[in-house]
């Protein structure tokens, strides 16, 4: 039908596969993320440290260059500690990126009452959450485990197959710790933005949960002379898991099992909060 | 033509189509409860019309009924079917056939209308290029062609209503559900919206369920009406048939009418009431208007005007509310 004709014609064409509909949301939401210059700049900044790590790996294998500038080769050892440090820095950047991007994914839909328009179609709440969270999942993957794996491959290609085989677990730890952090950040950001419905406030709340949670946890520990405060400190819990995954020798106040359980509990609560709010209409009983 | 077999049915009655085709909406003892409040109570009806109006005062349960049909609320008892798909099992199929225009503001403010409608089309299963084409068509159709690249946040209330209508029809649904489509519109915008709904109805491409508390909106657009009152069906009727059925009520303006003429009418078994030179007559069974004209000729009475007194929707609504 030509656009100049003001008449209505029903649709008789083929439909896309039902399973792929959440990708529509992913595509549109990702496009909106990069419409913001600040977010695009932040995304680019997230690659500075992996680039620096790449140079360090190259330098670590350039003994003659290191000797020329007077740095002993032992200083630049590429091992699990190196990748743990990489993960810590990229994890922090991923959090910053989430604080900017995450609240803008769900809160505008809730604030503008757009959810009934999504759910009156053959499109479920699960698909909605999947579509929105996949934006963060892909974005954070691009700044955490994907460059991490590139670094690992680079190191493996320079150090040789024997290093690669004996340290393959580092790549696994890198991916697992990144995915865990991505899941926590995505769920937390989306749950908070679904509850406050206001983008700026949701971003501030996310920062508050991380920093004030950590501060409050420390205060609880100091006042009550206990270690339970660490359970309120999400970065500490995640750090505990990472330390165990990367087999780094840093003593932690809580056990790895306790940290895992606490993180899974956080994720479950976030998911519950999210699914309570992501509805076409809220029922006021 | 759509077949409606039961006119002015009592609340509990179930209308059945003579063609045996599945009803547009079939309610079987449908109840919805929020906490300890019964919002919909034991609704049983079979809706067949091309354009069905859901009428009722605020809080009657109109929007709740629509939201239940769309699967937003779960029934506490009973069941409902849309195009023969049960709402508890075939919600995905139902949603694929339905276009919904909600009552309240529903849009994404930082998106242009064309992107927004395209995205909604894609979510309904249209391929991106087809969704874009149809988004343009839908926006042209509703009259937003010039403004289709503007962000929705900058739209006026009337334009937002039209954008909501565009997203509801972009995927070519078989049923269009409109929840208070003229809410907040000025008279000219309301006229435009009503004209558009009538065009859609007359195109016969889509069936319409229009939910409103404005009698004129329903009267102007619908051929069938379901009146709800405190969560129950107060009345269900086909407006056209109801009006035709009321052709036995006559209003006559006469010249030269006297007692003999009135007595002659009453001898036919008709009821008659006289005020000045006007008469109200209820025709008895088997008596037609030509019998009145014959009597008038015999009595040398001139009939200057003869109107069939039709029940307006307001009459029907008020009767339903009083019942």
Q: How helix-rich are the residues of chain B, as a percent range? A: 25-40%
How helix-rich are the residues of chain A, as a percent range? over 70%
Proportion in β-strands of chain B: 25-35%
Provide the CATH architecture of the largest domain in chain B: 3-Layer(aba) Sandwich
How many E-type strands of chain B? 14
Which descriptor suits the 3D outline of chain B? elongated
- Helices and strands of chain A, in N-to-C order? HHHHHHHHHHHHHH
Low confidence ranges of chain B: 1-19
In CATH terms, the superfamily of the largest domain in chain B is P-loop containing nucleotide triphosphate hydrolases
The stretches of 5 or more residues of chain A where confidence is low (pLDDT under 50) are none
How does this structure look, described?
- The complex is a heterodimer of chains A (285) and B (323).
- By secondary structure, chain A is mainly alpha-helical.
- Chain A has helices at residues 22-33, 37-45, 48-60, 63-69, 80-101, 103-111, 115-119, 125-143, 145-159, 161-166, 168-196, 199-224, 234-245, 256-277.
- In chain A, helix 11 packs across helix 12 and helix 11 runs antiparallel to helix 13.
- Chain A is globular.
- Chain B folds into 2 domains: 25-243, P-loop containing nucleotide triphosphate hydrolases (Rossmann fold), CATH 3.40.50.300; 244-314, Alpha-Beta Plaits (2-Layer Sandwich), CATH 3.30.70.100.
- Chain B is 35% helix and 27% strand.
- Chain B has helices at 62-69, 91-97, 113-123, 128-142, 157-169, 187-203, 215-221, 239-245, 259-267, 289-298, 313-322, and strands at residues 25-34, 37-47, 51-55, 77-82, 85-86, 98-101, 175-179, 207-212, 224-229, 232-238, 249-255, 271-275, 278-282, 302-308.
- In chain B, strands 6-7-8-3-9-10 form a 6-stranded mixed sheet, with helices on both faces. In chain B, strands 2-1-4-5 form a 4-stranded antiparallel sheet, covered by helices on one side. Chain B has a 4-stranded antiparallel sheet with strand order 12-13-11-14, covered by helices on one side.
- In chain B, helix 3 runs parallel beside helix 5 (157-169).
- Mean pLDDT of chain B is 86; it is low at 1-19.
- At the A-B interface, helix 1 and helix 7 of A face helix 2, strand 6, helix 3, helix 4 and helix 5 of B.
């Amino acid at each position: 039908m030509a656009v100049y004709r003001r008449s209505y014609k029903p649709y008789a064409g083929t439909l896309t596969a039902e399973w792929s509909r959440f990708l529509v949301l992913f595509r549109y939401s990702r496009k909106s993320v990069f419409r913001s210059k600040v977010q695009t700049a932040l995304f680019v900044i997230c690659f500075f440290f992996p680039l620096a790590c790449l140079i360090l790996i190259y330098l670590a294998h350039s003994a003659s260059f290191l000797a020329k500038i007077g740095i002993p080769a032992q200083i630049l050892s590429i091992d699990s500690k190196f990748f743990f440090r990489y993960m810590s820095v990229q994890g922090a950047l991923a959090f910053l990126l989430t604080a900017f991007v995450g609240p803008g994914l769900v809160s505008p839909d809730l604030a503008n009452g757009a959810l009934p328009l999504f759910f009156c179609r053959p499109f479920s709440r699960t698909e909605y959450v999947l579509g929105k969270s996949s934006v963060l999942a892909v974005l954070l993957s691009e700044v955490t485990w994907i460059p991490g794996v590139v670094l690992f491959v680079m190191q493996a290609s320079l150090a040789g197959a024997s290093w690669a085989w004996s340290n393959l677990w580092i790549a696994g730890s890198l991916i697992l710790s990144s995915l865990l952090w991505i899941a926590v950040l995505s769920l937390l950001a989306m749950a908070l933005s679904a509850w406050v419905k206001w983008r700026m406030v949701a971003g501030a709340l996310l920062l508050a949960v991380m920093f004030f949670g950590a501060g409050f946890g420390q205060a609880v520990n100091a006042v009550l002379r206990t270690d339970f405060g660490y359970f309120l400190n999400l970065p500490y819990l995640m750090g505990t898991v990472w330390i165990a995954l990367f087999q780094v020798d840093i003593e932690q106040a809580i056990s790895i099992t306790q940290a895992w359980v606490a993180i899974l509990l956080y994720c479950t609560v976030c998911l519950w909060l999210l699914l309570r709010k992501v509805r076409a209409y809220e029922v006021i009983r | 033509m759509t077949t409606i077999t039961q006119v002015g049915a009592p609340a509990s009655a179930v209308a059945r189509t003579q063609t045996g085709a599945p009803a547009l909406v079939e309610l079987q003892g449908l109840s919805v409860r929020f906490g300890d409040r019964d919002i919909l109570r034991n609704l049983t009806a079979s809706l067949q019309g091309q354009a069905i109006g859901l009428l009722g005062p605020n809080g009657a349960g109109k929007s709740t009924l629509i939201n239940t049909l769309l699967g937003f609320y779960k029934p506490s008892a009973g069941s409902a079917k849309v195009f023969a798909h049960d709402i508890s099992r075939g919600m995905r199929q139902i949603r694929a056939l339905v276009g919904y225009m909600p009552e309240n503001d529903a849009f994404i403010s930082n998106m242009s209308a064309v992107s927004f409608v395209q995205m909604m089309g894609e979510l309904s299963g249209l391929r991106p290029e087809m969704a874009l084409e149809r988004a343009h068509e839908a926006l042209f159709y509703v009259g937003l062609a010039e403004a289709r690249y503007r962000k929705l946040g900058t739209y006026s209330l009337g334009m937002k209503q039209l954008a909501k209508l565009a997203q509801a029809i972009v995927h070519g649904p078989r049923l269009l559900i409109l929840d208070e489509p003229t809410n907040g519109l000025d008279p000219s915008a309301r006229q435009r919206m009503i004209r558009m709904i009538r065009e859609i109805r007359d195109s016969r491409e889509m069936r319409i369920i229009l939910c409103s508390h404005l009698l004129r909106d329903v009267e102007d657009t619908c051929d069938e009406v379901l009146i709800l009152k405190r969560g129950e069906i107060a009345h269900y009727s086909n407006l056209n048939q109801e009006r035709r059925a009321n052709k036995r009520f006559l209003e006559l303006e006469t010249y030269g009418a006297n007692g003999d003429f009135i007595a002659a009418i009453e001898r036919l078994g008709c009821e008659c009431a006289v005020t000045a030179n006007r008469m109200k007559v209820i025709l008895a069974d088997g008596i037609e208007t030509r019998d009145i004209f014959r009597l008038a000729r015999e009595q040398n009475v001139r009939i200057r005007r003869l109107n069939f007194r039709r029940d307006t929707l307001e009459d029907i609504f008020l009767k339903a509310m009083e019942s």
